[in-house]
Amino acid sequence: MTKPIHIKLTGHAYDIHIGAGMLASVGALTKSFAPPRVFIVTDENCAQHYVMPLIASLRAAAIDMAPPIVVPAGEASKSFAEMETVMRALMRGGADRHSMIIALGGGVLGDLAGFVAATALRGIRFVQMPTTLLAQVDSSVGGKTGINLPEGKNLVGAFHHPSLVVIDPDVLQTLSRRELLAGYAEIVKYGLINDAEFYGWCENNGEKLLALDADALTYAIHRSCANKAKIVEQDPEEQTGLRALLNLGHTFAHAYEALAGYSGALLHGEAVALGLIKAAQLSAHLGFCSGGIATRVAAHLGHVGMPTDPKFYGDFKADDVIARMRADKKNSGGKMNLILLKGIGEAFVEKSVDENAVRAVL
Q1: If we measure between CA atoms, which residue out of 49, 107, 104 comes closest to residue 74?
Q2: Backbone φ and ψ of 265, nearest 5°
């Protein structure tokens, strides 16, 4: 177990606990908040593997629990329909303002359960217990919660920071190689944003991490969360523009995901990998960095086994991608704002990007 990462925000602070076997400690850690009743929200996949160990941990801490609330697995659950299902289950289970939700699952589940926590009874506490690599290094940290609309991803949501994040690398043993790769794209992203040394570490240790080497995995998760925590502390609700850097590659990614119908044909992390490459290519096209940067990023992602050509996932026409990119939350005044690169570890926000340049890269 590593030393907990402490995130200190105005009026709120929380710890990220990272270590093998941490699932068994969730009850003891949650007990410190003295919740009168805990509601486990999970998905069908996690329910098969980790609900019973979580329940055992909570029972050992003598915590009162409602029956687990289980939603379908997949991006489609980030919807008003599933939000209502979870919300009504909370009310039927006797939730009050002092109750606590434990979000047990990947990024989709954490976003949904977190948004329910943000809005139920005008806000209740919740714990993030992420079970995918992508959620462990990204979506479980930072307080972004939300659901999707047909018009775009995460267009409805709220900032609602968890009371606690518990990350157990052992739960990744049940993930497929494809899911691990999807999470790895987000790890690479942190190196590209502001940690060139870590990016180099990824190039040398990515295969070891993806083989679930305990030391490499724990190190990468901890460093990714620490990098994100530093940015979140300085800009918790995207008011200064600093936090927008965490969306490197995501404007492209969200467009690809929307065009793929938020289906299993294209995972979020796979879309992020494509987006990182396109952001690097656009940066080079606009003269902000050398073309070698984009080549290096694509080469590394391809080396570990990620498809680097959007055509692998579908026929994405440039005009369709751009139309989706126009709906991105970072845009303002009808102008496209994108996160670009000056080099490895040097991301920045470029405002009013020319659509013709984007079209050329696509």
Answers
A1: 107
A2: -65, -25
The percentage of residues in the chain with a pLDDT greater than 70, rounded to a whole number, is: 98
- DSSP summary character for residue 327: T
Maximum Cα–Cα distance across the chain: 60
125-141 confidence digits (pLDDT tens)? 999 999 999 999 999 99
Residue 81 burial (C-beta neighbours within 10 Å; 0-12, 13-18, 19+): exposed
Are 200 and 95 contained in the same domain? no
Can you give the pTM of this predicted structure?
0.94
Q: Whole-angstrom Cα distance, residue 40 to residue 67? A: 7
Nearest residue to 144 (alpha-carbon basis) of 337, 338, 349, 329? 329
User: What mean pLDDT is reported for the chain?
Assistant: 95
Domain count, the chain: 2
- Least confident piece of the model among 71-75, 150-154, 195-199: 150-154
C-alpha–C-alpha distance, residues 136 and 52, integer Å = 20
What per-residue confidence (pLDDT) applies to 333?
A: 64
- Distance between CA atoms of residues 50 and 152, nearest Å: 31
Q: What is the mean pLDDT of residues 281-308?
A: 97
CATH code, domain with 266: 1.20.1090.10
Residue 1 confidence (pLDDT)? 66
Phi, psi for 110 (deg, rounded to 5): -65, -40
Tell me the C-alpha to C-alpha distance, in Å, between residue 125 and each of 34, 68, 168, 261: 11, 17, 21, 32
Last residue of a domain, one of 142, 174, 206: 174
CATH (domain of 95): 3.40.50.1970
Which residues, in sequence order, are CB contacts of 266 under 8 Å at separation 6+? Answer: 256, 257, 260, 313, 314
Report the alpha-carbon distance of residue 327 to residue 350 in Å, rounded: 17
Residues 133 and 216 occupy one common structural domain: no
C-beta separation of 93 from 162 below 8 A: no
pLDDT-wise least confident of 11-25, 29-43, 181-195, 316-330: 316-330
> What pLDDT, on the 0 to 100 scale, is given for residue 334?
66
